[in-house]
Design a protein that fits this description.
This protein is of the alpha+beta class and 244 residues long. The protein has helices spanning 22-30, 39-45, 65-75, 123-126, 146-163, 171-181, 187-196, 203-212; strands spanning 3-5, 35-38, 55-60, 78-81, 104-108, 117-122, 141-144, 218-222, 227-232. The chain is globular and about 65 Å long.
Length: 244
Amino acid sequence: MIIKETMETITSELPICTGYLDTTLEVFNRHDHPLVLVGTLAVTWSGVNSLPRDEIDLLVRPGELEVIVQDLVALGDWVICENPATLELIRDTSLINTTSIRDVWLTSSIEHPFFHHLRLWPETLYKLQTRAKLLRTDIPILVPTIQAHLDALLNQARAETDSRQRTGNAPKLHIQNFVRYLYLDWVPNREWILASKISDINRPLMRSTIENFQRKQLILWDPVLEKSVFDKMPWELSIKRQAG
């Protein structure tokens, strides 16, 4: 699987204060470990309109998880905590990891953080590897390519079905959101993604997800009927050229 570097920071809609992850970057750099964003923020970065949750999800090589956690705690900005989903009165069970592979949750100790938690995912749990080289040292944040992330999510979904255990990442929801917001149910996109971007073992699940996805038609104003009607799919709209 491939990890690509992004040359952008998180969009202005996600206002992270300057230096928010400096100590985290310091720890990862100390261990020559890339900072790979996964989970909801990585999905959003790929063009999916998902609301950010309260945590930043990072991918970690299993053999270095313990020492990275120890160093993060030693710097004083993070404290080990329980998964917040297990403490809520109304639990979101899709966020609870019930497998034998443990992830690690930390809570921020700084005042008024935008994201309150850091979640560290072992590669073996997220089904994705951190095989990437940093080409930009001033913005050392990586995100999975859409292809790599979809394959990882599909692997998670299959593993959840086979084992009847949850990874705590709600992979099926992320996959459906990729279909919805990247228009993977549009025939040319569907054929392209299935033909060349999904591994053979995951292709049946991806195909069934796309085929079972039901997109609502757009509500458009009909000037003849003088009312709103369900009329077209997004890709059926004509593109209006701007003057000039």
